[in-house]
Amino acid sequence: MAKKQSYNDWLKAEFGAVIDALDLNDLQKRFLRARWVDQVVWMGGRANKARTWYYLLRLTAIIGGVMVPALVSLNLSGQTGVQVGWLVFVISLLVAISTAVESFFSYGERWRHYRQTVETLKSEGWQFFQLAGSYRRYDTYAAAYPRFATRVEEINQQDVQVYISQVVDEKEETSRESNEG
Fold this sequence. Notes:
mainly alpha
């Protein structure tokens, strides 16, 4: 039985086939794969991981947060009451840990950040492949390539700047506020 191809493998192969069909020299095609395809695949993977962690931690906090008051309201006594008390304690710990971990790592913000950047890179790539948008004035891929390479680098630089200013700086500000309080 054949192993199912991952989305990232499919994406690499699909973009690779498109890149191979372009009228560009081998070095430009290599740069496209190494810089654009690699970033699209890497950021897409990071977005998916961040989304998974965000959903897992948030769902744990939400479900646990709903369960605790419901269990407490049962007001049971005896051995069952003791067991429910421990269950409430464990669920409360899971809710607190999930909330703290999500807050510390900012998975929701990371997910949205990576997803926005990867979609911007994809859009730029599709416009280049179709000689559309800002590439419509070019007659050949070779003529449009310098503009595309510049745009990819601008998007990557902007990604780093936004990540540092939003995700890292907000985390440092939260840490300072925690230490002051």
